[in-house]
Amino acid sequence: MSGPPEGVDTSGSSSPPSQGYVDPDFPNPGGDWDVPVIIYGYTPSFVLAVLAAVLFFISFCIHLFQTLRYRTWWFATVTISLVFEVAGYIARCLSAEKDPYHLLYFIIQYFFIVTAPVFLAAGIYAVLSVLMNRIGRQYSPIAPKLVLAIFITSDVVATVTQIAGASLIGVKQSKREDPTTANNILLGGLAYQVFAMGVFCILAGIFLFRARHELKARRLIAFTSAFVAATLLVYLRTCFRLAETAEGLGGNLYSHEVYFGVLEFAPIVLAVYLFNGFHPGRCIGGKRLASNPDAEK
């Protein structure tokens, strides 16, 4: 008589089940790094992973050129974020094509894809700090240096917590143990990140509203519109991650890749290309604002 299907808990325990997704069309290779279930909740799409890797690599090349051309070293974190995105989606390609049960592939892709937006957010924080310094500190609710110190620190703390939680989820599922505690750790990191970035959006909104006439006078409305759009896209992605984790493993958001594609991949790729089109080095670089005698007030 055959045993129970892979991923089905027959122990009768009252604790939440540790069941997961098993692809009937992709047998588990049973290698050293293979776990009983596919932690993604689905078999990742190879096409999506390749598309993402290619688009992020193209944006990386453009951002690297722009960083060198405009010497905007303070915005170089975006280039780093794109290196992470490419690495993450390459690992996801390996999961999709070679072995979706492979725990190491999952951890690598998760680490890089989750960490990459932190460097992108750091670039966003730097843009606001530079705008506050160059447009006028009197429009800002807090000192420009505090923007970087507070929000970069918050993102680091939140991301370390998320990675720890995600790693524990992988370990728990590999042992067919209840991953609820690990998921709660991940949830806590995401909740803090959503809160911190929400505060940043409020501060940025206050500054841009107060400085709206100055921004219009310097013909920076198009750039600030792109900056706001990119910021909200990154925030949307963070809110999605929070909702996905709050719903729990096996939830609708977690177990359908379409949500990952629309609410993780798409917002970040749009944000980085917005900054390609409206690069801070070209729009608010030294030459653009130094011509105004009030630029450093």
Automatic annotation (TrEMBL):
Entry superkingdom: Eukaryota
Subcellular location: Membrane
Region: Disordered, residue numbers: 1-21
Record membrane topology: Multi-pass membrane protein
Pfam families named in the record: RTA1 (PF04479)
Main location: membrane
Keyword ATP-binding: no
Transmembrane segments: 37-65, 72-91, 103-128, 148-170, 190-208, 220-238, 258-278
Keywords: Membrane, Transmembrane, Transmembrane helix
GO CC annotations on file: membrane
UniProt name for this protein: Sphingoid long-chain base transporter RSB1-like protein 7
Species this protein is from: Zalerion maritima
